[in-house]
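Q: Okay, next protein. This is DUF7033 domain-containing protein from Saprospira grandis DSM 2844. I've checked the sequence twice, so it should be correct. Can you predict the 3D structure?
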Amino acid sequence: MSALAFYAPFSSARLHYIAQLIFEQHLGLSLHFLSSKADFLAYSGPKLAYGKLADSPLFIPKLTAVLEQEDIRPLPAIAWQMDQNNWPFALSAKGGIIDFDLLSLAFLALSRYEEYLAFEEDPHGRFSAEQSFFAAYLRRPWLDYHFNCLGELLVQQFPALEIKALAYAFLPTYDIDFAYKYKGLPLWRQGGKLLKNAYQRPKELKRQLAVLVGQEPDPYDVFSHLAKAHQSLDIAAAHYFFLLGDYGPYDKNTPWKAAVLGRLIQELQQAGNQIGIHPAYAGDWGEQIKRLAFWTKKAPKKSRQHFLRLRFPQTYRQLITLGIEEDYSMGYAANIGFRAGYSRPFYWFDLSENKQKELEIYPFALMDVSLKNYLSCSLETAKTLSDQLLSELQEVSGCCISLWHNSSFDAAEGWAGWAEFYLDFLKRAKKNELI
């Protein structure tokens, strides 16, 4: 592992966090912090400073005090520009190895700084994409690009420096809000569906009855089809997040005690898939974790929020206390792209406590409901948008995490054609790993 000496005229938890994320985690360098400018100037090996140096061009411009501070203040003014390759950047200044304050900009995006400030909540209490300071570039993994460019510039300055070789990766994930449409429901819910279908949807009534007597598969039972698709594409494992809350307005999952649900969870686990918790809209998350552990025989370490209800810092703090080590909620419901500007996993920095926590964040790039319901995409438009995402992720050797629901394969619920779309998307997303 190549070493890089790094100097800044101050030391802070924020600076150490973002420097280690960029140089160690992303670029694969061993970072050595220097304590004085004299030591930096005297150092003969690969080196870089944060803040302008009259004696050397080997610095990243410092345009804000964000990394020196310990409190949370209004965002600095951010004016965006485009580089020669048509990628966005901001906090511009000339004279350094790069022409903008990448460290401050990356920290603001990755820490989700803007989500600690006052914002207008959507109906589910969420921060919306259009309020982000980089809303215009949400669909682009711009931090991946700039981290890669910085690595290339360092190698130009220090040819012996060895940068980590990154490769595009794809991970399909699934939220199981309803494991089954009809199977496993208690009599009162089953009866309610029978009455509703009898009065409003006679064709669906016929299908419901056929499912109950075993003549047809449950419409949401697509798990064997997904397994075959994964196997054909050499996808070793997928992630499944199960909603196990109590019945309520936004939690209508298959009852957690249903034997048919338990068998499904165990079969998916035994097949090598990763099983995570999908904390409910309401209720005790700790109790829901115990319910999942009842079936898996071990406490889950992976989580994704139901309705993607993510509040900083409360949500992540609560997950940590419950033993969660990885969260997959970093994305928007109403749009596709990169909520933190970055496609790869990274550790959470708690701004309120001003320290890095041992919770790893896995950002997702696109979701079925975003494309169909929020963006009202036709199948053709959805393919165009997903192709654009995949192309840019391939360009930056990024990570594509998709979010799909097993209920999104039911044509009777408005998803006609989307099953075929998704199977084609799997092929396109996986194909990029082979390029």
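A: Here is a summary of the prediction. The chain has a mean pLDDT of 96. Residues 3-157 form one domain.
Q: Noted. On to the next one.
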